[in-house]
Structures
1.
Amino acid sequence: MKRAAQTPMPINIRALQARDRKPWEALYRQYADFYQSTMTDAILDRCWSWLMNPNHAVEGLVAEGENRQLLGLAHFRACPDPLIAADFGFLDDLFVRPDARGLGIGRRLISGVAALGQERKWAVLRWITADSDAQARQLYDKLAQATHWVSYDLDLQRLRG
């Protein structure tokens, strides 16, 4: 259910904090469900440990609404690009609660990551999405240019086994 025509609620985009564990976990489980990806407690624990470790590459922003309620998340990291000898930003995960979609939260989370990338002198902010995610792609097409690159995954666990 979209809430686009309602009075805008105050949204705060901020860094993920230790106090956010339970609401972050609920959001991240919904994100995994959306992409039909298996989510376990071990995956959640490891990802959370990365996000809480200031020396790990993965960072997180959240969208906080009224009463400190988390409405969305963004996970991102810097990646070196040898071809241009510069870092670029990679947006790994972006999710907004279904009942909070249409309020500009996804756009604000991407803008928050982009602002950090500008401060850090990243050359570009890059992300991928499922070609079937039409709602997200409507936003992405307004903010960024789709590329001609095709993505491949080589299952290294299967090669070992």
Note: The two ends are 44 Å apart (CA to CA).
2.
Amino acid sequence: MPAAPASPYVPPAPVTAAAPSAPVSVFSSAPPRGEPVRLYRDKRDEERNTDKYEDMSAVFSVITATERLENIWARWGAISQDDYERQCELLIQQYKVLTASTAEFIPKIDKFIHEYDIKASKARPRLACGYPVTVKGPKEPKHQNKFVFRCTSLFHHLGTCIDTNQVAVGFLLPDLISLMKTLKSISSLPQDFVFNARVEFWVEKLNAMPASFELTFDDASQLKLDLDNGYAELEAAISN
């Protein structure tokens, strides 16, 4: 009897499981391919950029601190008026110094506020005007003669500074702010005392300038004229 033909079926080779490959970590210690990206060109560039970002951070902090202070004062009344004014004036001076040094890379503060989404609905106008909100309204009458004498001295002092060409913003601005605040303390002055608006205008104008900036001849002449008119207005008001 002939032998049966061999079966063409060949059993498959046993399948061996491949060893799992190690997962690729995004935190691999292997350096990336290509040239490394240098954050700074040299040591000097590193120092300059470090100062830049530190100043920008400080501007951000001052704006947010001012917003917080305004809310504490306006919403909750959790701070006395004297403490509010002292802290507000300190923040305003810090803001002025910082914005002067960061003008190169923060040319427009509104754009900076928008870009970094800073909540500054109360801080922006406060820092722009350059004085606390509490100096906007008249205070209770006390020591009126002292306030009148102080105003008189400031009028003469500021006029003398302009006459002698001492017209740097950092030199004039503190006395202008003092004059504005002292005038608000004289309760006998009428509500429509015209020079109040003029001195507020000059405080805001100078507050927007760097401290080292000197007034132009035209601005200095106009300020002197306004001071002379304001002093004459003050004399007329207190003599009535």
Note: DSSP finds eight helices and no strands in the chain.
3.
Amino acid sequence: MSSTVIENFYGVYLLFCENPKYFGRTYIGYTVNPNRRIQQHNKGVRSGGAYKTSNKGPWEMCLIIHGFPNDISGLRFEWAWQHPEKSRRLRKLVERKKAKENGFQHKIRILSHMLRIGPWNRLALTIQWLVPKYRVEFEASLLPPAHMPIEEGRVISKKIASPSKEKVALSSSLLKCDICHQMMDSDILNCINANCTLKAHILCLASHFLKSEPNRMLPLEGSCPSCSSDLLWADLIRKLKGCYQNQSLALDDTILT
């Protein structure tokens, strides 16, 4: 099975116990390194695993939700998924475990609700089934938002070092935002249309998108001010993260020329 490298990874995962004695038990956790984390769970609490999973393995990390913007966002999602009855966003939405429903199915149903409500329904999240045999389809009435892809395969986390402030300042000073027409002094968003030359501050493009949703803090979609293409905010953020790995090299080229 092929693996996907994810930069600056923040993910919330679901474990499934394969031990016949504890078969079917589940565990929800947060990690920045899924491959290291599953090893810790299977080695036990002395190796960094959780007390609840220690000496009960083998465990399989069957599903992970990734794409959170930072630790805090991921940890809040983890806590709500673990404690839906205590979460003010979920306690009125999620029913208790049904009579014919096992723990795994119940966790997936809770997840289905979470992905469809704020603030999580506006994040650039990916639903990743790490082990295909565990994959189940979401109920038709509880499908994730269209901008959240459902993928299969292992993931490898990779931490990307940020370019120096001096290099970022030098590169940004050569460009102007197409919306406010001021010099770029932060991360640059580009249109996903290959033929479009849009360059914009994140806040400028977000404000442009939010003109149709003035009461929102985070845009979901909008029209490109340059080429008029319909764009999903999540796709723009994914493109920014994907390009960030090569930013240091691009900055070096800018300095040399």
Note: The chain has two domains: 3-158, 165-256.
4.
Amino acid sequence: MPNLIESHLALLPESTGRATATLQPRLFHYTTLQGFLGIVGSKMMWATNIHYLNDSEEFVYGLGYLKTEAETRAKDASAGHRAVLLRVASLVDYFKQGYVYTASFAEDDDLLGQWRGYGVGGGVCLGFLVRELQKIAERSGFRLIKCIYEQSQKAALAKEFIDHSLTAIDATTALDNERVEELANQIVTRYQQLACAFKDPSFREECEWRIISKFVPVDHESVKVRGTATMLVPYFEVDLDLGQDDRGRTNIGIDTLIAGPSLQKERILQAASIAAKHLTIEASRPSEIPYRSL
């Protein structure tokens, strides 16, 4: 993979967060108390349909970069490349409506902004070992991708992605319609995952990462629908179960647990430890942020 793309698919180089002293990269998932109980009880994580997130327009806008780049490059491309590029450009509008699922993670384990969103009155932050999270993601057809905030990087990624994709296509050989369709679909499907990681620059301080699916059919067995007060939301059940250790505890990729700012955070932490006693969680602590900050 080219360097710019690699930078958003690479492992974190050092330990993140303050939950443990061991130098293993971690990413942190913030959730409500009910969300925490659902995760540890079912050993599943819910990845939300991209169109039901408040930043879904960034995804749609991001795919537009690919369409623009493909149309521009097609003007001077060889016949074989031109056919693929034009088909890529025509497929983008279809893929904008495609069902892709994502779940979010932060590099920091005690972020006030995240607690405000998920932990008013009490929430939980779960620390995932990156190596385990990658296993979980890949098993379900997801990729772990670092979010992309800078507008200049988004355009550069589209250009680099096209460059990389075209190197695998022989420009001197004529392609039949079936092969053109296959190649174009592969390009847009792969780029669609990157576009799901596009976020507005105003959120860059979050340093967010996401696990992101490929295109998922609406009748996939792992797709379910949940209800909120005002909306029905499709989600994908991501299986977290990585097996048991020699003590009979289940590994779901999580080894740290932080109870969010709350008047009852010590009590919540005690109860959370009971709920997660069957898991390979090695460290837990309360947030260091005062409850009044919320």
Note: The first helix runs from residue 3 to 6.
